[in-house]
Design a protein that fits this description.
The longest helix has 23 residues. Helix 1 packs parallel to helix 2. The protein is α/β, with parallel strands linked by helices. The protein has one domain: 4-Layer Sandwich (Purple Acid Phosphatase, chain A, domain 2). It is globular and about 50 Å long. The strands form two sheets. The protein has a six-stranded mixed sheet with strand order 4-3-2-1-10-11, with helices on one face. It has a five-stranded mixed sheet with strand order 5-6-7-9-8, covered by helices on one side.
Length: about 240
C-alpha cells in the first residue's frame, strides 16, 4: 500500500466508540503515508501548548505512526480548520487545502469536499467562522469554553446520528470531480464532507471516491502499489 486515506471521523470525545475504531485502524496500518481529508474532529480549535485530553488516544496513535516514519498529511475540514501549530508540530503534520499527488503512476486530487458547496449560506458561514472576530472570541473563551461552544455550533453528537447526505451536494461533488478529470488535472479525485460513501468510474477513465462517514461506514481508502484504489472496512469499534 502506498497510502491510506481517511476523512469525516468527527470524533467527539474519549468515550466515543468511533475513537476506539480509529485507534485500532491507525495501529494496524502498514503504509508509508496517511492522508486525513478533514473533519477528523467534530470540533477542534488549536490553542498554543494545548492538546485536548478527550482526544489523547487518537493523538497518541498518530504520534506512534509518526515515530514509525509514516508521513502524515492533513487537509483541514470545516470542523477542524484551526488545527493549530501545537498539534501540527507534535505530529509533523503537513497541512494543505488541496493535495495533488502522483501515486502508483496516477494523478490524485485530494480535498475535503466543501469546495463543491457554492451556496451563499455555506459561504457566509465559512466567512464568519474563519474570520478574525470568531477567532478573537475563541481566544477570549479559552480551551474549555471554546470547545463547548464549538460542539454546540457543530450540532453535537446527536447531529451526527441524524446526518443524511444532501442529494444536491452529492451531485455537486461528483460534478466537481468530473471537471477535474476533464481538465486533465486528475485521474482520481478523493474527498469527504458529504458523508456519502461512493466509488464511481467517470467518463474518460477517471475515478471519483467519497470516503463517506467513518462514524457510520467505518471505511478508509487504500491506494495500492499500482495506483488502484480500494475502500476497506475498519474495525467496527
Amino acid at each position: 500500500m502506498l497510502a491510506a486515506l481517511i476523512s469525516d471521523v468527527h470524533l467527539v470525545g474519549r468515550n466515543d466508540p468511533t475513537q476506539d475504531a480509529l485507534v485500532a485502524l491507525l495501529d494496524g496500518l502498514d503504509t508509508p503515508e496517511l492522508v486525513i481529508l478533514g473533519d477528523l474532529f467534530h470540533f477542534w480549535w488549536g490553542f498554543p501548548g494545548v492538546i485536548d485530553v478527550e482526544f489523547t488516544p487518537t493523538v497518541a496513535a498518530l504520534h506512534r505512526l509518526a515515530r514509525r516514519g509514516v508521513r502524515l498529511r492533513f487537509v483541514p475540514g470545516n470542523h477542524d480548520f484551526a488545527i493549530g501549530e501545537t498539534l501540527q508540530g507534535m505530529l509533523g503534520l503537513e497541512l494543505a487545502s488541496r493535495l495533488d499527488l502522483t501515486l502508483g503512476g496516477r494523478r490524485f486530487v485530494l480535498v475535503h469536499g466543501d469546495e463543491a458547496d457554492t451556496t451563499w449560506g455555506y459561504a457566509l458561514t465559512r466567512f464568519v467562522l474563519r474570520g478574525p472576530l470568531f477567532a478573537a472570541l475563541m481566544w477570549a473563551l479559552g480551551p474549555a469554553r471554546a470547545r463547548r461552544l464549538g460542539l454546540r455550533l457543530a450540532g453535537g453528537s446527536r447531529a451526527l446520528a441524524a446526518h443524511d447526505p444532501k442529494p444536491w451536494l452529492v451531485a455537486a461533488q461528483r460534478a466537481w470531480a468530473e471537471a477535474e478529470v476533464r481538465a486533465g488535472r486528475a485521474d482520481v479525485v478523493v474527498m469527504g464532507h458529504s458523508h456519502q460513501l461512493e466509488h464511481a468510474h467517470l467518463e474518460g477513465g477517471g475515478e471519483y471516491i467519497n470516503l463517506g462517514d467513518f462514524t457510520r461506514d467505518r471505511r478508509y481508502l487504500a491506494v495500492l502499489d499500482d495506483g488502484r484504489c480500494e475502500l476497506r472496512r475498519a474495525s467496527s469499534g
